[in-house]
User: Which sequence fits this backbone?
């Protein structure tokens, strides 16, 4: 049997870090995983400011042990929105289809979805996925890509992830 999957959950928010509001992004990601992931899993959660070295260091730490690291926040056009830059710094391969698919679905909900530069990439044996900071964006975006996540994790040497089919029907191309 393969190892249980460990998911990294990284909230990037100046205001949540300062305590100006309670972080609702991290809990929303964990709730999503609770609903969708059927196989055994655990999470490692972190909260950092919108600062490239801090984000890079948290991503590197999480990618050491997690097969998927999901970030929320810091994807927009403002000066301190730098999560995609930090993601590019740690990933050896970018997976631009994730950002494209999430924006396409989000644009059907809100015109400002185009303002998110969210992306994804591979760091060692870990898939990093950026989500916008808005807590309601989390399920909207993950629903658009999660069916491809288990196979991506297979391909990068991670554990076998099973999903609850009524929520997400994980797609694995059949081997000949
Ligand atoms: N971690 C979070 N928890 C709760 N609400 C959040 C969080 N991050 C963002 N939001 C909310 O989502 C909306 C978009 O926020 P914004 O784009 O300013 O966030 P950010 O730049 O990712 O984070 P911050 O401004 O805190 O550094 C706002 O209404 C904000 O209150
Ligand atoms: N699905 C979805 N995507 C969304 C949004 C949203 O509410 N729902 N907000 C948008 C807005 S208003 C911004 S500014 C960008 C970047 O947000 P961030 O800087 O918090 O990551 O994400 C966009 N993507």
Assistant:
């Amino acid at each position: 049997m393969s190892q249980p999957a460990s998911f990294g959950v990284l909230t990037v928010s100046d205001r949540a870090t300062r305590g100006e509001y309670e972080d609702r992004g991290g809990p929303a990601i964990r709730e999503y995983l609770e609903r969708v992931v059927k196989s055994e899993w655990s999470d490692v959660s972190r909260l950092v400011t919108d600062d490239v070295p801090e984000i890079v260091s948290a991503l590197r730490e999480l990618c050491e042990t997690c097969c998927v690291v999901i970030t929320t926040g810091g994807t927009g056009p403002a000066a301190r929105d730098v999560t995609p830059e930090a993601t590019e710094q740690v990933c050896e391969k970018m997976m631009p289809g994730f950002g494209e698919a999430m924006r396409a679905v989000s644009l059907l909900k809100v015109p400002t979805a185009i303002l998110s530069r969210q992306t994804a990439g591979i760091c060692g044996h870990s898939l990093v996925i950026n989500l916008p900071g808005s807590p309601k964006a989390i399920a909207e975006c993950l629903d658009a890509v999660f069916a491809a996540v288990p196979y991506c994790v297979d391909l990068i040497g991670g554990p076998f992830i099973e999903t609850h089919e009524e929520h997400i029907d994980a797609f694995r191309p059949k081997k000949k």
